[in-house]
Amino acid sequence: MKKEKLLRYVFLLAASVAILTIFLIFVFMAVKGVPLFFKVPLTGFLFGTDWSPTKGHFGAFPLIVGSFLVTLGAVAIGGPLGIAVAIFLSEIASSRVANFIRPTVELLAGIPSVIYGFFGIMLIVPLVRTFVGGAGFGFISASFVLAIMILPTIAALTEDTLRSVPKAHKWGSLALGATEWQTIKKVTLPSASEGILSAVILGIGRAIGETMAVLMVIGNAPIIPTSLRDPFSTITSVVALDMSYASGEHQEALFALALILFIISMSLVAMLRFVSRQRSTR
Amino acid sequence: MRRIEDKIAIALLWMSSLIVLAFLFVLLGYILIKGLPVLSPRFLFSFPHGVEARGGILPMIAATFYLTILAGFIVSPIAIGGAVYLTQYAKPGRLVRMIRFGADALSSVPSIVFGLFGLALFVSIFGYSMIAGGLTLSLMILPVVMRASEDAILAVPRSFREASFGLGATQWQTIKNVMIPVALPRILTGLILGIGRAFGETAAVFLTAGMAINLPFLPTEPGRTMTVHLYLLATEGISLDIAFGTALLLSIFILSFNFLARYMGRRSVKGGR
Asked: Domain range for residue A103?
């Protein structure tokens, strides 16, 4: 009998590993990163525009702007495309066509980010260089690569929500003489809007945390870009590039950047919870 | 007018889907065409040499499998144990909500943050090593595998559990002899999906398992995985043919994991009915 009770706690411990890890990640990033703020003021770190860690300047603003820029670019391309694919799969395609396309889109989600980065360097960057000019590394290449990467997430979640819209609503609309597209636009999409919002938030989370693919095509220059052709940096790219050699304050600054990234991801998770709770209370 | 708008909208939806399909085929086709000439027994089974890392990638293949399998062994008991707790013991309430929040949150932590965490915790204990990388990766794939295990256990028919209790089995005996064996195919499907993710991970790996080219034997030895090798070759622009070969091999393994998981998933659904 004692063994049965003990096992209960063993299982509880296993179940708690995830939440404990979240706690530990926060503690480690904070302990390793926060000491920087005794030397560099928090506002100077967040809003300073000079990032030259080897000279002791830790203005992370260009990196934060960079992260938000590529995320915005990725969602602007990948969002509509992903939602379009989802509408197609759930409302337009025959089940045979959908059963061919859906797994293919899912495969895109499984391809490692380093392969996207490699593909970006070999094919997309030269294309951008030819047609837009500049070095080819930067906003356009990074947004494009990221858009492909977040598209499967957005498409899969949106399709789930679209499928959960009751058939009777669609039939009612069609029976009233609405066309297929009018039904999608006026009935199906509005009743799935919260689900689509969740899908886009998840896509944002993927894009802002993505490291390897971005690092490989963004050009890596810690500046606020003034044109589409400029190379720049993101939080993730700087952390990944510098961590292997950084020490002292530089290393603390990288942990502080990771802490910011962690806080952004956790805010997005909280936002998702809020959106889905609103949906379920309705 | 309406008819025209309809036609245009539907044509655009078709086009979007075809564009996305085209992405995948261009990506895989490009890597296949450029990588296929490189694949040879020598490439698979020999060591790299020289500063440009020409020759084979045997140590990278070995390190990738070592790390991934290690992560699989570490994550399995935790994920299955957690799923057992959630499905067999827990009552709905604050504790369960917290556990679920933890899993959700963990699955959205960026891989570079995992890398830094692994560096700060596991590398400071073990140094750059297979075990530090394996521990980091196991935490990273924990949410996927735990979720799949939970679904697998929930899919076991209620009557199985009741029959086991009816025969006088204790809860632990029921879990060990009935629930887990019946749920195992679906648990394995989830595990393969998680392992596939670990296999393709880069950022969390080079910060924990290192970049040294080494055929790892002990878990305390460092190693360079295929993903890290590909990254280094691609960004330094050296030995691009080797990079293409590595990318192709990596894609083949990842696709195999995907198909294996899908095949097993389909089989277990049929078996359950």
From this structure: 34-281
